[in-house]
Amino acid sequence: MSSLKIPFGFKKGRLVEVDDVPSGLRCGCVCPGCKGDLIAKKGEVNAHHFAHAHAKDSDLCEYGTETAIHLMAKQILCEEKGIFAPASLIEKKDVDDRGNSHTASRVAHNKGSLVFDEVVSETSFGAAIPDILATMGGKQFIIEIAVTHFCGKDKISAFREEHCNVLEVDLRSFTKNLPTKEELRSYLMEEEATREWLSLKSYGDVENQVEKELQEKIAAANLRNKAKTVTRVERPQPQPPGIYQRSELITYSKVDTKRRWLACSSCKENQKAYPDWQDHLPEEVFLFSCSWEEAPWEATSVPCPFCNSPVIVK
User: Fold this and answer.
1) Helix or strand or coil: residue 149?
2) Residue 270 reports pLDDT greater than 80
3) Can you name the residues that pair with 180 across neighbouring β-strands?
4) Which of 35, 68, 90, 264 lies in disulfide reach of 309, CB 3.0 to 4.6 Å?
5) Which pLDDT band holds residue 167 (cuts at 50, 70, 90)?
6) What contacts 6, CB < 8 A, 6 or more positions away?
7) pTM of the predicted protein model
8) How far apart are CA 192 and CA 112, in angstroms?
9) Where are the beta strands (DSSP E) in the chain?
10) Could you give the CA distance from residue 67 to residue 69 in angstroms, rounded to a whole number?
11) C-beta separation of 94 from 113 below 8 A
12) Tens digit of pLDDT for each residue in 47-73?
């Protein structure tokens, strides 16, 4: 006798619950997975369930429980012609020139019940055969029921390339605690957990809108950042009163070495403040502005041409 518990059995082409049929072999049901005979167990200790009538069938049947849940979910969707769908939010992030993060988002689909005009199971849709193909107001929707097998990347990419509306529902949790038909129906019609949109026809347009909005936010932030930026201005250090502040270094020719121009030590240091002052002056001679006359050599001192301080002539 099999210990594999199966929540629903096939009878006359439809899935039924244990409570809808007589106990034991009189139930007249077969396994949704291997098509072997089932017995209906209605004990007072364990939850009511189906089990394989023959041990060999149980040993060969690996997916009887999962297949029963999968098929019953599809049967319920065809009967109810609806499902509760979650929201789909498209969100993008990027940073501005200063590294500050910005976000933009839009809802591609609002959560709520979908009420279909028509629902069919296991029918061709291009090269694929989806679990459920439904229509609502002229729009087509694909519903994939996942118990052990989920849609792979290639299948999802194909759906998105075709701009299909595809919703995948995860029913793995029901393999541990066998559901009744009502529990499964309530889950599909009223809950939004463990289901997601794999593809939406509106996804491309909404994604472009989100990207545009994000780039506009970043551009506006960059403009604000630029307006706040203060350009650093190098200002000359303040000089003592009376000291002339030179605006540029004056270059002299070799002829100037025949004349001797004198300046005080402070003004000489001012000349030295130019990094390349030695490249512009004859060796051992400090030459400044040509705006004053040649110093009289017979004088013992001459005024500095910049600050009028006396310069001793040696």
Assistant:
1) coil
2) no
3) none
4) 264
5) very high
6) 31, 32, 33, 38, 49, 50, 51, 52, 64, 65, 68, 178
7) 0.65
8) 8
9) 8-11, 14-17, 38-41, 49-52, 82-85, 88-95, 101-109, 112-115, 118-121, 132-136, 139-146, 165-170, 195-199, 301-303, 310-312
10) 5
11) no
12) 789 999 988 877 788 889 999 999 999
CA-CA-CA-CA torsion sign (249, 255, 257, 260): negative
CA dist., res. 246 & res. 268, Å (int): 11
- Closest by CA position to 272, among listed 255, 287, 253: 287
Tokens of 312: 């001793």
HSE-CB of 165 using CA atoms within 13 angstroms: 18
Helix ranges (H only) for 247-311 are 265-272
Q: What would the two tokens of residue 12 be?
A: 């006359």
Q: Which of 172, 121, 166, 107 is nearest to 141 (CA)?
A: 166
Q: For the chain, how big is the Rg over CA atoms in Å?
A: 45
Torsions phi, psi of 80, nearest 5? -85, -25
Residue with tokens 């970043």: 218
Q: What are residue 167's DSSP bridge partners? A: 143, 197
Contact 20/38 with Cβ under 8 angstroms? no
Q: What are the tokens at 228? A: 């706040």
Which uninterrupted H or E stretch holds 59?
Answer: helix 55-60
Nearest CA to 143 out of 203, 193, 70 is that of 70
Which among 174, 223, 236 is positioned nearest to 8, based on CA atoms? 174
Residue 236 token pair: 């000359």
